[in-house]
Amino acid sequence: MDPATVALFTATALAIAISPGPGIFYVAARTLAGGRSEGLASSFGTGLGGLVHVAAGAIGVSALVMASAEAFTVLKLAGAVYLVWLGIKAIREARRPFEATAVTTGTARAFREGIVVEALNPKTAAFFLAFLPQFVDPAAAPVWLQFLLLGLISVTLNTAVDVVVALLASRARSIAVGRPALLRRLRAAAGGLIATLGLALLFARRPASL
Fold first, then answer.
1. Which of 120, 156, 179, 194 is the most exposed place for a label (fewest CB within 10 A)?
2. Quick check: helix, strand or coil at residue 25?
């Protein structure tokens, strides 16, 4: 691929990655609810979930999903329900002492849930299908290989930004640890934010151009 094209794509993808969006809000909320380790785990989980969309886009599965209104709706509903369920669970756990929820949370679960959240997000599939092809040159190399390369760059940048967000949110959470009432409110608010992201996903529409 043309190095100038790759550089332009990287700069554009970075600008998009640092723009506040559902992914950043989810990681921040997850960190506030479960701490730095869970926030970092969810960051890498959403990154792997993003790679699912990249691979699917490279082989054409995402295009089929976006072209079918029924498939898009099923994926959207599954992702929305899952996020709402995670949010409600986080709110319920926030009402219990932190020590009582320690055994029910963990980095492994946060990682798995991050994968599912991103893999079930049709807006991510729409983003890759609408954004990446603009930088693909059919004459330069196999299209699927270019799609994978650009997708990997985008996911790497998104994950790096999510890691930074998790560290910043962890700092805010550490300040509240010595104030149990404030920490409970932060954890409950984080659960509410996760559930809200799920409700917002219900209103996602299938792009008309796809």
1. 179
2. helix
Quote the CA–CA distance of 69 and 53 in Å, as a whole number.
18
Q: What is the pLDDT of residues 27-86, one digit of tens each?
A: 988 888 888 999 999 999 999 999 999 998 888 776 766 667 777 788 788 878 888 888
DSSP category for residue 141: S
The whole-angstrom separation of Cα 172 and Cα 191 is 16
DSSP-derived secondary structure for 27-38: HHHHHHHH-HHH
* pTM for this model (two decimals): 0.78
Q: What residue has token string 């949010």?
A: 87
Q: How many CB atoms lie within 10 A of CB 166?
A: 26
d(CA 161, CA 155): 10
Q: How many whole angstroms from its chain centre is CA 32?
A: 16
Q: What is the pLDDT of residue 157?
A: 95
